[in-house]
Amino acid sequence: MAIRERMSGNEAMAVAMKQINPDVVAAFPITPSTEVPQYFSTFVADGVVDTEFVAVESEHSALSACVGAQAAGGRAMTATSANGLALMWEILYIAACSRLPIVMACVNRTLSGPLNIHNDHSDSMGARDSGWIQLYSENNQEAYDNMLMANRIGEHPDVMLPVMVCQDGFITSHAIENLELLEDDKVKAFVGEYNPKEYLLNKENPISVGPLDLQAHCFEHKRQQAQAMMNAKKVILEVSAEFAKLTGRSYGLFEEYMTEDADVCMVVLNSTAGTAKYVVDQYRAAGKKVGLIKPRVFRPFPVDELTAALSKFKAIAVMDKADSFNAAGGPLFTEITSAMFGKGVVAPKVINYIYGLGGRDVRSGDLEIVFNKLLEIASTGKVDSVYNYLGVRE
Amino acid sequence: MAYNLKEAAKKPERLTGGHRLCAGCGAPVVVRQILRALKPEDHAVIGSATGCLEVSTFLYPYTAWKDSFIHNAFENSAASIAGAEAAYVAMKRKGKAKDETKFIAFGGDGGTYDIGLQALSGAMERGHDMLYVCYDNGAYMNTGIQRSSATPKYADTTTSPAGKKIPGKMQTRKDLTEIMANHHLPYVCQTAAIGNMKDLYEKAEKALYTKGATFMNVLAPCPRGWQYNTPDLMELNKLAVETCYWPLYEVIDGKYIINYKPKNKLPIRDFLKVQGRFKHLFKAGNEYMIEEIQAEVDKRWEALLKLAGEEA
Fold it and tell me: Does pTM top 0.95 for this prediction?
């Protein structure tokens, strides 16, 4: 029987880590992810995990220690937000190219500057090309579930890549919600043991990790890394299917909500999808054909599936809680529109909204503006502005 | 067993030949001698910061390391090895790691005194059971001889060039060994490969087999940066010690022990004159620079004697 509980998103991630019982957790405090290592160090202090908790002196060292631990043959995990993730930047790429399936709880927060502790996606969006798999979570349940699936995905022999599980800082990380936990033994059986083929602690077969890798071989290694990310899509679906059998909770590459007969669609990540679903319900009650797509997997980017799903709408609004400062559109928007163009999906009109930066509240009324605009575009066929800002004083 | 160079040299090499470090480079001499102090039956996980040692020993698809080796980045050799050690502790607890394993992180002075100081301080303070070795050649040699905080005053480097107005590096050297001693570690030492390398071997053995975080600062001359004749490597090491530029000492649980006191302390000019990086100090009118360096060496040596409770 699943365990019904109520807890914050941070606690849910920490509990998932407890049940996974990794060899090393190395982390450094930063709001709003601080609670994750706090909870976890309590589990260590109480002796309920076998983990070595390494209270490092910076996020740079947190991820560096994770690289050392995972290369040694252990399972390593960390948690961070915003500037902490930025300080890890250099090592994000090294972890990915070294094919070390480290798992990170990324509690999304605005990347400085200016200094701001509240939620947007400027931290993880900036890391989108670092070679990490990125899973996004709407609520505490999804944050917990994604954490439980992360090791299986990253450690698959066809993948061997690090995984970042994202949830919205404060909005879900600090909000207490009901959720269902799996029993410890079921998690243990599902996650399994980490038995890498090659690792530093193997005296019988010593290895060297992290070479100087010049023109003769580097490109081939980057190509293999790219292939691993391509392979990850299938593995994510397989692991998610197995997880669904175990829990009854189904996850795909993205979630479609009321899209079947929809004329217009909003694409939105993480917690705002919850608010958007409420607005969709209200519009549906009024007979308006609106729907929502919530990407769960941003890396690898599900080009085929997402473009196929988006092809049937008349108008689409891609919502970005991060700006690219390219005077053209946010990261999710540019990625989706370039994917659509590449796949020849050019019928839908696509607009972009930058919203919620620095933790600006996103209310149902804000999202109504977006749906109204989409319905207007659907009926007139005209787009007056592609790149827009929502909920900001101008 | 008493140290014997012949016996020590008979041990199988753990850093093999074929690496690409320069002739006359101090680094491989230091590394090989330290690795000889490992018990043959012990496995080692060795890390290196980005730098000469790393790029010359592990160029894909070749490695010169017989033990397991990891290079992560420039500033995180200490954190990377700390992570490996933490995994070892957890995996031992779970019965997944059985072999006796030692953990060693190497870094040059750039990767240790400068960009890696924070990660080093953190790893040492946390008390991981590991040895950190700084091979100090007194500049960023791998990128082409730029000044570091370990570069001695007035040295000519490519970012502190001896020019018409500014005669080389204008600051004195950071004392990293003292910084590490003040971390109150069980074992800290300063050493160099002199004579039959007994001092280096015995300190490595102590550092490796003292439980907890230990630190060695080892002089490693660089023929390109220091501009000396490559066969003179051992002579450079000797002069550094005989002039008290690089005193040999240990700090064991806070207690200072000076391992070698020269009977006739040589003037610092003997050490400076054999190095091209100090060539400008020997031009007429620049005598004050040598005097200043001599005064600084004397001051630091006397301070060390005091710490060890000895008279000058």
Answer: yes
